[in-house]
Amino acid sequence: MKTTKIIPSLCGILLSATSCNDFLSKNPDNRADLDSPANIAGLLVSAYPQYSAVWFTEVMSDNATDAGAQAPADIESLRQAYYWERVDEEEQDSPNGYWYACYEAIAAANHALEAIENLSAAGYSPTELNPLKGEALLCRAYAHFMLVNLFAEHYHPAAADSTSGITYITRPETSPYAEYSRHSVQEVYTLIEQDLQDGFPLIKDAVHDAPKWHFNRQAAATFISRYYLYRGLPGDWDEVIRYAGIALEDNPAAFLREWIESSKESFDVFGMTYSRSSNPANFLVISTVSTAYRAWYHRYTMDLPLIRKRVAAGSPHPTTVDISGRYALINKAAGNAISGCYGVFKYAEVFKRDGINADYGLPYIMNTPLVAEEALFNRLEAEVMQERYDKVIEWLDLYYATRVIDYDAARHKVTDDAIRRAAASASQDITPHYALNEKQKTYLKCLVNIRASEFVSEGQRWFDIKRMHLPVVHAIAGGGSVRLEANDRRRVIPFPPDATRIRFPGRPAQPNLPADSLKLVMINH
Q: What is the pTM of this model?
């Protein structure tokens, strides 16, 4: 583990006229002293990233194309993401903005954990404190997990020890000058696992009035299944199956999203229904600043051929393993025929004005980063690795029963032959770090292809591209293309520009720090 002195530069980013000492003497959430479980619970609202990774990861994936200059909007940060260039922007829907949002969430979790320790020493009951501790640990693990999977190479057991990751922060910042270490990918994964294992047993849904807005048991179990799926060590498949089973209560039919009836709603109503906390499929809902709802009229989005490929407008879905009938998802895919920009309306935007008469403010979406469908597909991949193919076929049948209009169990039966045909039609090969026999590769190719459609517009495709080492080709409007190879270094998003240099108010920028140095914005509340 490399150790370097890191200066988070809280003064330069978070303060204007006040001094660093003044800032550090104040409470991290500017609301109340952390002297009661209720106040800690209030702070934990800030332990979830307030920005979203959905849009920029989707644009980087093969779920996006170049609609051309006639598109109503052309944002430079999205163009940079589309070409896998360094993104300069630090606002919402940018990698840099998400970096800072994650470290702010981590800071809130660490302040909460410290306060929990203090209250425990003061005699507060574990019954009151343990659920808060469990939530804080899951929040800390989640933000670090997202950071390491965006800003580092994907986990590979042969290289994880020697591959630079991110800094895993486990304590509140109390000084403007702090020494941090950039951990290896292996160290980050080990620390995440420790937080998950310590935190999950403490999760208690009953302590929350609205559990879906917190790391409840189903959300936490789905996240843990994702962790073990991404790590992909020999013993991890049992853990994926175990935690996905907890999330789905071994009854996926009770939680899978209902598409058929809800797809008859208007676009805006559908978006609200899709992300509503009362929807059984949504295990975790986070309110995030994002314009992802508007993706359908931006240049780097989906054009008509791509959206037909993903959601099969007016034709059988290419990844439905030869199941006939319309795929219900298309009922909420639409766009602008003149500009050629299309999208799937999974979000409803709420614009929060800065004042009653203000014409400016912030756009919010209800983001659903952990859902029943992910738990299902995580488990299906693990079942393939355990070579339990009958279970895969059985649960794919359950899945399509919620997706195919006029579903008929006999006519739409998923079969081994159908899976093989679907896999053969997938042009991209998959090369995860773990070994596959021919049947495992066939089934996984099919599942990964289905995931590309199921999670369209949700950003998950980018992580599948990284972990399966899929190449990506982006068309350029007017002719030509750019290509991201299976092991291209551009898959690792660069740290924000300010993360490797020090700045102070009124002083010139300091010389660049070594490449393994980080500047961390710890708290902004």
A: 0.88
- AA letter at 259: W
Average pLDDT, the chain: 84
Measured in Å, how far apart are the chain's first and last C-alpha atoms? 31
- Looking at 347-503, list the stretches that DSSP marks H as alpha helix, in order from N- to C-terminal side: 372-385, 389-401, 416-425, 438-454, 460-468
For residue 349, give both structure tokens: 């935007």
pLDDT at 376: 98
* DSSP 8-class letter at 90: -
pLDDT per position as a tens digit, 104-153: 999 999 999 999 999 999 999 999 999 999 999 999 999 999 999 999 99
Instruction: Count CA atoms within 13 Å of residue 509 on its CB side.
Output: 8
Phi, psi of 335 (to 5 degrees): 180, -155
* Domains identified in the chain and CATH numbers: 1-52+92-207+495-525 (1.25.40.890)
Give the count of alpha carbons within 13 A of 217, CB side only.
12
User: Buried (b) or exposed (e) across 239-266, using 16+ Cβ within 10 A?
Assistant: bbbebbbbbbeeebeebbbebeebbebe
Please count the other Cβ atoms lying within 10 Å of the Cβ belonging to residue 38.
10
Helix (H, G, I), strand (E, B) or coil at 368: strand
Cα–Cα distance for residue pair 106/100, rounded to 1 Å: 10
Q: Residue 25 gets which letter from DSSP? A: T
Cα-flanking dihedrals φ and ψ of residue 314, to 5°?
70, 15
Residue 251 tokens read as 């009854």
Residue 33 to residues 4, 21, 111, Cα–Cα distance (Å): 33, 18, 11
Query: What pLDDT was estimated at residue 330?
Result: 64
